[in-house]
Amino acid sequence: MDCYETSSQDPVSKQVTTIRVNIAKNARKTIEELVENSEEMIRRCVWRFVALKHEDGSIKGDVANFTIEPGKILELFRDLRNIDSKKN
């Protein structure tokens, strides 16, 4: 399982939360089968996921750990493709 890590600081409390996003092996394989540059797409999926977790208030405390499974990565992939198509 791959792990991507970043941090976020609450603008009011100034608390820093470490955010860890794990990519399940079968989720990675799903993206590898869909696109040529899979690593770039996986990173984009991770950032989209983190943004959505910020929006729904799931990023709290000292550390927030998440795992992206195949179904979720496909949802993120579709979201990004939709966003990309609206830009072009």
Give an overview of the whole structure.
- This protein is an alpha+beta fold and 88 residues long.
- It has one domain.
- Helix content is 52%, strand content 25%.
- The chain is built from three helices and three strands.
- It has helices at 25-34, 38-55, 70-87; strands at residues 2-9, 16-23, 63-68.
- The protein has a three-stranded mixed sheet with strand order 1-2-3.
- A hairpin with a 6-residue loop joins strand 1 and strand 2.
- The longest helix is centred in the middle third of the chain and has 18 residues, at 38-55.
- The chain is globular and about 40 Å long.
- The chain starts with a strand and ends with a helix.
Helix content percent band: 40-55%
Mean pLDDT: 95
| Domain module count | 1
Distance between the termini: 34 Å
- Name the shape in a single word: globular
Please give the radius of gyration in angstroms: 14 Å
